[in-house]
Amino acid sequence: MSVELDVFVGNTTIMDKEVYQLWLNGYTVNDAVKVRIEGGVMEECEASAEVLLSDTMDQFRTFQMCERLLQNPAKLANQLLFQIPPDRQAMLIERYYAFDDAFVREVLGKKLSKGTKKDLDDVSAKTGITLKSCRRQFDNFKRVFKVVEELKGPLVENIKQHFLLPDQLARDYAAIVFFANNRFETGKKKLQYLTFQDFAFCAGQLINYWTVGAVDNMVEDMDVDLDKEFLQDLKDLKILITDKDLLDQHKSLVCVALRGKTKVFNEMEANFKNLSRGLVNIAAKLTNTKDVRDFFIDLVEKFIEPCKSDKWTSTDVNLYLTHYTNSAHILDTFKHQTVWTRYMGVIKSCILRMYHE
Amino acid sequence: MPGKLKAKIVAGRHLPVMDRASDLTDAFVEVKFGNTTFKTDVYPKSLNPQWNSEWFKFEVDDEDLQDEPLQITVLDHDTYSANDAIGKVYIDIDPLLSSEAATVISGWFPIYDTIHGIRGEINVLVKVDLFNDLNRFRQSSCGVKFFCTTSIPRCYRAVMVHGFVEELVVNEDPEYQWIDRIRTPRASNEARQRLISLMSGELQRKIGLKVLEMGGNAVVGYLQCFDLEGESGLVVRAIGTACTLDKISNTYAPASAINPCNSSPSKDTKDSPQAVPSALGCRSTHSSPVHSASSRLSQGFSVSVPTLLFAGMKHRHRSSEGPRARQCRAGFGEEAPGVPLSSGPPTPLRAQTFSSFSPSKSYSRQSSSSDTELSLTPKTARICLSPSSPTLQSKSSPIPTTKALRSTTPPPLHVSQSDTAMLRKSVSFSEDLLLAASGMGSGGSAGKEAGPLKALLRQQTQSALEQREFPFFTLTSFPAGFLLHVGGVVSARSVKLLDRIHNPALGNTRSYKLLDWNSFTADEPETRDAWWEEIRQEIKSHAKALGCHAVVGYSESTSICEEVCILSASGTAAVLSSRFMQDGALDMDHRLSRQQAPVFTSGTEKGEGDMGSSASLGFEDLAPPGCGFCHIPYDELNMPFPAQLTYCHCCRRFKVPDVLFTTIDLPTEANVTGKGCLIQARLCRTKKKAQGEGNATAISNLLPFLEYELHTQLMNKLKLRSMNALFGLRIQISIGENMLLGLASATGVYLTPLPSPGGIQIAGKTPSDITYEQHISNMQKKINDTIAKNKELYEVNPPKLFTLDPEAFRCINTELVEEVIGSPIPEPRQRSRLFRSHSESSDEVSELDLSHGKKDAFVLEIDDTDAVEDIHSLLTDAPTPPGFYSCNTEIMPGIYNWTSALQMFTSVRVFRLSNVNLTNQGLNKVFNDLCENLLKSLYFKLRSMVPCCLCHLNFTVAVPEDELIQVAVTAVAMSFDKEQTLENGRQSCDKTLMKAITENEEQLQFPLELTAESSSNPLSSAKGLSEVSGALPSARVSSLEKASPLPEGRSRSLRSNRSYAGGSVAVVKMTPLSFIPGTKIIKYLGIINMFFIRETTSLREEGGVSGFLHSFIAEVFAMVRAHVAALGGNAVVSYSMKECVFMENPNKNQAQCLINVSGDAVIFVRESELEATPPQPQSASTQTSSSGEGT
């Protein structure tokens, strides 16, 4: 004896947030029921396990039917099949596109290809997130990527508009798309300490200042590709380290400015040339795609790690970078002020964000 | 009125990808009406095509306009192969044909494919230009409004209630045609959908014609059903109540609307001989055609319900009865229905209608049939249900003749005589009776003579009603003052064999084009009509036996399994006021003049003469509105069945039964104590598999037991909840190959005028055994506890509630009331003593006491396992979780402060019985658990709406296959404001009144002088209340009309603003009720009646049976909403799912489902938007319109 068929359809589609989350997390119906029982719904509502099972199955089915629409959120608003109040729609979409930080750290910067998708079981095993959930998140990344790839206009705006996501989530997706497109290396051991939000912040900086969109806002891919001309121009910064005079001059300016203001002055003074070479070399190499990928690892190796080993505080770093940037403007023979500002502005905020004490 | 139908295809969106190569679609659209087809251009390579076509114009007959749907097919153009269909949209243009409904259909419709479901949407614009054409031979009935709502629609007023209309059309089912073997499933499904759409259209048109002929302009309580008889065909039938309605907000509409289309056609038909041979001329004399009784074998069966009197089986042979009936009729010749109205010269046959109402006649007929025909193969048993109450009385007469019934009526309390013949067990309740078909004997008629007032009344209304062949009303709630008395439930069932009758006709006469039922000469189509007619006669005679001349809350249904079909009809016997009825002799001019002056004219000014007025003065005036309907309509000295009568606890002047069962909604004016609750009796009986006649006989044999047990269960559960009346009783019997299912649902309430029910006592058979006694006393204790708990839960009888009784103000003076408050349970003695001081008839008082004493004697005897089971099931019925209430009627007594939060839902479960060898008990338990679990699931699902009430819980059971039980529920959950429900009796009493008043106002839109009146004088306010929807005195009406000129066309402006922020889809509310709390319905846009088929050949891929059905139901909702939105509406009221036939074949990965839904599309506006303060007539209208914009 068994229940062969069991459906419940409301004129207004009934969805329980909690069950939705369980579904999103990729639980099976039975696991979800267990979680719900532990959560105490039964006592609250005098329900039996049977009732809970029926309800869970029913909602899972509803979500599954909605999934097609959620993959194209704009459709959700003007489809006729489910009558869902607008605030609910927003909730559904937002949660569907939400992702786990642990997951995104694994995939960030990887090519959103079938190959990567195949490796998701490893990711799942590593992060403890169900494979189903991993796939959903991965597919979301890929879907957003595919859609915005071909669109003109600002990345974040496009994402907001096409996927009806709230601002913060749209920014995160912009970062994911940006990372995926430029294939930034984020998985190395040295980068493990960085959170997704660190990278998302950096991505925001790069998008805002280093892409084509920063200068021209109606180009395809404007926010996804770095500004090639700018990258070319960065080569000119090499003069700061190749010209011995300039390097010394720069160093003395910074030392003058910092003397007495920091406890790590000596280390700074000793390391100045190394640090400066590191930063300028990063800039100079960015025309190579390969080096673009290593951008974050370079920052860590060439700058953050040396500072760390000398026990700089964030304030020290901030102070140093501020004066390092500003002093260059005073150098008479240094002609590339605009490029320098554009470059160092981003570098500074990225480093500060990445500099965890 | 031929017309020009214009359609424009604007755009499509979300189309499916039809071309894999490009991932796009080259879509175009075919628009078809009748035999004319237009095409749009191909819009290449797009999933969101913009056709923006020209206006396609169809010049058509209005007959076609009514019958045919506009058929829109979206296709994908393919250069090399055949074009692929994407899907279709059928648009019923009927709403455009009535001047008062919608004027344009415009909006996005889901494109539906029977295999793939919804595939994108299409934006369509449809208009109709109707020409006025006074063609006297016309067969169309444009302009007649149809409402599913079983009460007078909210923004209308009933000028006249004409009576019963029915019609049915048959055809061959395309699914069973030879051609079906070579066509695709899609083609079959579409053929079927289209055919049913056509048949519904035709049916509606024909019913419309009858209405016009009767002088009405609307059908209320329109109930359309399909019988999928399989091989033997497809029957689409409908019943309804013809009315003349007046729009409250528009003074001019009625006259103009009614005159041209209503009155003239009927006149035309009358004078024109040509009309006679036409389809319509033939059948419709009055509301219901008279058919000659043809001789046919039928298996019928009738039981009267509460007291099950059951006559065993009779073989009814129509032919033998026919002549007798006709003879009887002759005497009544003068009353022949509708003589003045009848169109065309009556044919001889027609003159001999069966509508003979005289009780003696029908009884004699029945009794003779039982006598003489018993010896024949037992084919018919009849059950007539009358609402009665639950005293189990075992009858000692061993032989199942019904005649024995009346004679043995031991005092109701004892149960103990063990009866030998199980059949003989009859339950007799106190006031309702049940009449066994033969049981009434001549005594029934004798009884009528008593009680001069009543008799008078009866005769008088009868004069109006007897003119009708079937004085039936599908309405379940009535304009106040219309319903005078309620007798009880009457029902009849009949078991028929389908193939026998059908087969001969099948071979040659039928083609698969639509058959015109009326012009069809073969006797086959007549069969179905005759079947129903027979049942209706049965019902009518039951009603008669209950001293009633009308049946209200009437409905019909069927259950089909293979070739066996059970036809069921049930209703509530009632005495109606003649106020809204037109007597048959009225001629056209009279009627016309009345319509032009839409005032309530009824009884007094009409031909009924003095009877009419005397009725109102004699009876109604004395009966306070709150309890009048409970007073017995039959004669107490000569009751047809044993019943306990007591004096009405409200007015103390008239007798009331101790239990009342009805199929109607709780009258708004009813005095109710506490809250109500859903009561269900569930029963499952195994049956041997059998074929043909053997099967039919087996089923006939089982039915009475089923009916009896259902009734007992209902009674027990009612007692357990300390209630004394059932409303909305619906008993459904479903047949399967190897079992019968019975499900009775009703809403139990405590009617203040009725005596308080006694408890339940358990008696054991072997008192000597001590452990057994202990067991018994344990059970007794449990039962007593449950009763006490229920009393609390439903607030039945908390002392203060007694003051609820408005009659208290009237009949008992204030000190008395206080006294009563003191005692928790109104103690009969005390009250009667009080009463005595006011009443002259002290004898009767002592009688009253006596009966009270007896009342406690409801005893359950545990003499067998069955009884133990019964008691167990009593106790295992889980109470609703806190915060939940449930009922199957429209309104829940005791809850008035609804919020506007509502959630309509449909839930379906199919249960597989894996163990084939289940016993009856096992089956019962399974079935019971299935229903209980379903309810529990609903409560859980809807827990976020607490406190809330599930209203109009409508269960439908079916046995789709051998071991499957299917239960489908449609209901609405409505939240209410908890605060106020906790208020104590006194306040809630006031509130009730106030609320009722405001509701009243809401309905009227404006309070007018009602408010003033009511505040000063509770009684008159109560009366005023009851005037609600229909019966406003003319003075009020006219002021109303002046006061509320809702600009027509305003509704248009509503549309643009309807959509919510964020989305482009308008919200459409759906509810099975006739209203939406907190809102006012300002316009009815037309009836929604849709039939869909969905099939899949990839069941697993669609998520199995649940996934498949889930998406189908969601799709049906979506299509209903889209149609409503396109009509400019924002809600569907009186929504119901009539049919949900689900078939699966998991082995082939296939499933098919048919769903039929209906409802009324409306525009509502929120009251809060209307105005925050009580409206002043003048300002109100302006506010209304301005707030309308915001909706």
TrEMBL record, chain A:
User: Record's superkingdom?
Assistant: Eukaryota
InterPro entries listed in its UniProt record = FIBP
Q: List GO molecular-function terms, semicolon-separated.
A: fibroblast growth factor binding
Please give a single GO biological process term from the UniProt record.
platelet aggregation
Q: Name one Pfam family in it.
A: FIBP
GO terms under cellular component = nucleus
Q: What is this protein called?
A: Fibroblast growth factor (acidic) intracellular binding protein a
